[in-house]
Amino acid sequence: MPYFDAASAAPLHPVARQALLASLDEGWADPARLYREGRRARMLLDAAREAAAEAVGCRADELVFTPSGTRAVHTGVSGALAGRRRVGNRLVVSAVEHSSVLHAAEAHAAAGGSVTEVPVDRSGAVEAGAFAAALDGNTALACLQSANHEVGTEQPVARAAAACREAGVPLLVDAAQSLAWGPVAEGWSLLTASAHKWGGPAGVGLLAVRKGVRFAPQGPADERESGRAPGFENLPAIVAAAASLRAVRAEAEAEGARLRALVDRIRTRVPELVPDVEVVGDPVRRLPHLVTFSCLYVDGETLLHELDREGFSVSSGSSCTSSTLTPSHVLRAMGVLSEGNVRVSLPAGTAEEDVDRFLAVLPGVVARVRERLGAPVAAPAPAAGSGPLVVDSLGKRCPIPVIELAKVIGDVPVGGTVTVLADDEAARLDIPAWCEMRGQEYVGEEPSPRGGTAYVVRRLG
Amino acid sequence: MPYFDAASAAPLHPVARQALLASLDEGWADPARLYREGRRARMLLDAAREAAAEAVGCRADELVFTPSGTRAVHTGVSGALAGRRRVGNRLVVSAVEHSSVLHAAEAHAAAGGSVTEVPVDRSGAVEAGAFAAALDGNTALACLQSANHEVGTEQPVARAAAACREAGVPLLVDAAQSLAWGPVAEGWSLLTASAHKWGGPAGVGLLAVRKGVRFAPQGPADERESGRAPGFENLPAIVAAAASLRAVRAEAEAEGARLRALVDRIRTRVPELVPDVEVVGDPVRRLPHLVTFSCLYVDGETLLHELDREGFSVSSGSSCTSSTLTPSHVLRAMGVLSEGNVRVSLPAGTAEEDVDRFLAVLPGVVARVRERLGAPVAAPAPAAGSGPLVVDSLGKRCPIPVIELAKVIGDVPVGGTVTVLADDEAARLDIPAWCEMRGQEYVGEEPSPRGGTAYVVRRLG
């Protein structure tokens, strides 16, 4: 049963499993104690820290283990902001950071701080110049992920780091998605990651803070992990995390090249096999194992269920699969289609056959979902109608507003407009994206007198 | 090799190990995902929550899993204080709470809040009336442990809870040391605990918040664990924690009775076998598996090393074994001897023979340490001297000041005084404790003109 959601959580690496089992016996005691079980635990902890620091590219005394990548980000952001409180209170983040960074930014804003979000282009990449321009004399910290977790696009970390150095601003790099594949480019001040993304166990994140970076941990502390991560160390899991990081790094070059080719196959074949698909994210500057595409006229949740029934586990940034009723903030920031969104992230060791079977199954699955939703199957016939058309999709969830738009576009004379009334947040993203894919003109939106929003589209051909 | 430090961390229970192994295979995926691996993880998480809630005595939706007992306490205290910010800003705690509670209290005070510490008696117990008296109209939260982690004394939780209900103040009970043995008395509002204390793995704590208790989680949050514990769930460890809690509870009555008898044996035999020992903590209202005693004229760190060489792992609240240079805050609050302090906490399954061997080995170990330190071996001879005596122990670490006091007391005429100059913090606790054990009068302390403190002792006999 192919599991294609490594970006959420990777299955436990065999090396991690082995290390975990060994350290359940050897590393359960308190490493702060003086007796032999404690000394043994301390040795395991020290060795794990050395190994993780080597993989990160920092000194062991710059790195602490946290209970998760999310906690590493929260601690890193709040500690760095507090450490530079006298300099300023601005936090600069890219618009496509992981939610843990954005939640930390929200908490900062709620406490009276200021937050600047740097936009991304349609590939999901920050423009380094724009990032540099956002740094001002009031900026306490900047955050930029090494690569995006939803679309795989790599960020210009080296150039952002140079700009930060120039501006005297520390840079926190969330390396959760890329650390398995290699170290982050030089120049970061703080770095965070999460073990279960690289085949380590849950319950372990890491936070590295370069010597010389002002850092003031917030909240109650204790003497563990240099006062940066209170609470009894999750030692067997830490040992397993460090061991598996070393193991995946040893395999990274070969496995990365193999998965990169499989992802290229998906990127090429999906638009050939499935009509009306947008493959998103940078095709070249990207993570080796991750690809995201969106299918017009498809409900993301149904698509996931159908793929699950066929044996494939993938995730989606469509609003229809989340409890928030809004599409993924990453897709929104990129301005790409969000309906029928599928993220495929291949775990190490993924079989080529499984990818091929996915490609074989996908077209039929998408077609079935579209058929059930009554999606248009052919390009619109030339119109004979007249006058401005209005489609009322109020109260209807994605992808229905786009489906209804597609159904009437044939009735619109070339040069004429159609207005779609919708109150589903996804329409704001998906109607312009549909226009771009279909070569129609997206005119704009205005409040609808009947509630929701009126989206205006001009037929060009 | 007998490990007698279960109160720090218990070795992994066989049931925990088994559950952990099984859920490494079944529970590594993200429980928030819709595909089968995610649904399976969600089922495991739900079942673990049900099991833990049953053991705690609350509803499943009142309980969240945290990365450690410490994090549960920090989250519980800050969330409850924030939830009642409009009522007041006072936090009431006992003086012998776990450091995680006291660290949370320090953070509260640093943020401008007010903290009241309720003292304990010489057994380590809070007096329920004094606890009730500390609750005022400005009190947002009160904290009382179920039983003390250093001396085993049970706290009057039921009476404290009644007083809190009366005053309309929520009560947080840190049940870390007692939850393995049974549920906490009714009446608590928030409850915290830590899995590695009951033979579960590291990396799991729990926080229960009763419905109706005002609670506002602080810091960045996400959608996991009801917004109270951000970050990817440490699922295999959570499953193991819940399974082992159920297992230790099934064994609690029989094993508790067996360990209680072993601890009684230690409590009775140690003062018979070793001269000049104070066994501390309540002899009856106590945890079944834990006993603490202090040995006059002994350096705690050396004692621990000697016991370790004999194969016994125990901990100590002596200042000489910690990096803080002050004795344990618990021993200080109780006003008992801190030098040569030993905490024995028996893990489930401790063999009777190991306890007997400990009792056989201890007298020789203590005698050797005393001999090396030049401690007095006999009661003082009647004095013939005259005039006030001064002992200069400035710059000397515990237990030297007390040893030097004991050596000269024989030179002091009955009714006369001796003054000990000392700058080791432990002397403040250990000189009065020595007086009580020796039937001499502790007159008091004053600043010493030569630095440090002058402790005055009157010879009574």
TrEMBL record, chains A, B:
- UniProt cofactor(s): pyridoxal 5'-phosphate
In terms of superkingdom, the source organism counts as Bacteria
- Enumerate the UniProt keywords alphabetically: Iron, Iron-sulfur, Metal-binding, Pyridoxal phosphate, Transferase
What reactions does this protein catalyze? (sulfur carrier)-H + L-cysteine = (sulfur carrier)-SH + L-alanine
- Where do the UPF0033 domain residues begin and end? 391-415
Pfam families registered for this protein in UniProt: Aminotran_5, TusA
Entry's family note: Belongs to the class-V pyridoxal-phosphate-dependent aminotransferase family. NifS/IscS subfamily.
Name used for this protein in its record:
Cysteine desulfurase/sulfurtransferase TusA family protein
